[in-house]
Amino acid sequence: MLALQACDDIDGLLGVQRAFACLEKLIAPQRTSETDELYPTRTELGALVGVVNEELHRRLAAADATLQSLRASLAQRAVDHHATPQPEAMAQPG
User: Fold this and answer.
1) Measured by CB atoms within 10 angstroms of the end CB, which terminus of the chain is less buried, N or C?
2) How far apart are the first and last CA of the chain?
3) pLDDT tens track for 38-83
């Protein structure tokens, strides 16, 4: 279950990363004959980049929390596995 959540979290991060890259391209100077009224202002784009950046950090934190839970679960499973007596160790000399 945690592994699936980790994959979903990573997929979400990739989507935010693509959106951020797109916004960076929009902010870069462009050669165009269109009027400035068709494009958002730098202030508007800067605000949008800030929101996307906050969302990226939120998703990073969610992915990190999921991976930490997965790591702890796997570590506990390994401890439980080693603590369980193996059949050959339970055999009594006879």
Assistant:
1) C
2) 44
3) 567 777 778 778 888 888 899 999 999 999 999 999 999 988 888 7
CA 82 to chain centre: 32
Please state the domain count of the chain: 1
53 falls within a domain: yes
Percent helix / strand / coil, the chain, rounded to 5: 80, 0, 20
Nearest to 8 by CA among 50, 65, 52: 65
pLDDT at residue 38, as a whole number? 54
Apex 61 CA angle, 69 and 64, nearest 5: 35
Task: Please tell me whether the overall predicted TM-score, pTM, comes out greater than 0.70 for this model.
Answer: no
Cβ atoms of 42 and 23 within 8 Å: the answer is no
